[in-house]
Amino acid sequence: MAEAHNPLEQFLIHRIVPIKVGGLDISFTNSALWMVVATILITLLMTQGMKARALVPGRMQSVAEMAYEFVAGMLRDNVGKEGMPYFPFIFSLFMFILFANLLGMVPFSFTTTSHIIVTFALAIVVFIGVTIIGFARHGLGYLKLFAPSGVPTVLLPLLIVIELLSYLIRPISLSVRLFANMLAGHTMLKVFAGFVISLGVLAGWAPLAFIVALTGLEILIAFLQAYVFAVLTCIYLNDAVHMHH
Question: What is the mean pLDDT of the chain?
Fold first, then answer.
């Protein structure tokens, strides 16, 4: 297969502005560029959308209000009113992942969430933040999360190990779920696009029709994966705030 049709070529990171500090490479890359684009678009949506504060909202205001209410409802349902102080973080997390996912659907763009280093960085921030909140609110009592009440003493050591492992694996499961879905979906799109090119106009109608359907599905998955990441963060936050187990 020609290099131009390599389905994995779209995930290559290219340096735009090479920057080296000592032995550390902190170059500005295409991945960083599209993360900046996502951040700018979110900022524009929220600032311009809420600038008018009209009683009858326009399109941008409606989208901004819908996004706000959606995340606020998610937080209230999973954490309760005690979770609202953490709304800015959950909202920023959801919107950044959503915009990064959707921008990846634009031709000749770059899907930042298709790289495990990006999704793991987001997941580890969630993990460390939730752990700090848990210990800040409950002190050493937060460790009771790993020892559920009512468990027979003989089973307690085994259960503590299982609970600890499941807790430590949270950032891995969070990051891999998002990364794998974005990587797989975009790879499939590129593979079928290669079929259309190689088969020509007459024979390529079938993979072309599949691409159209798959694109719609990928847009849905882009939203769904942002939602799953945010709602799991809310569930982890609920453990830290309420110690429910």
Answer: 86
Contact at 8 Å (CB) between 100 and 223? no
Report the distance separating Cα 37 and Cα 194, nearest Å: 28
Q: What is the pTM of this model?
A: 0.86
Residue 230 · residue 109 · CB < 8 Å: no
Q: CA–CA separation, 146 vs 162, rounded Å?
A: 8
All structural domains of the chain with their residue ranges: 3-242
For the chain, the distance separating the N- and C-terminal CA atoms, rounded to the nearest angstrom, is 52
Handedness of CA 60, 64, 67, 69 (dihedral sign): negative
Model pLDDT for residues 172-210, shown as the tens digit of each residue:
999 999 999 988 888 887 777 776 666 666 666 666 777
- Around 173, how many Cα atoms within 13 Å sit in the side-chain half-sphere? 11
Q: Are the beta carbons of 214 and 226 closer than 8 angstroms?
A: no
Q: How far apart are CA 28 and CA 230, in angstroms?
A: 27
DSSP-derived letter for residue 85 is G
Give the span between the Cα atoms of 192 and 7, in whole angstroms. Answer: 9
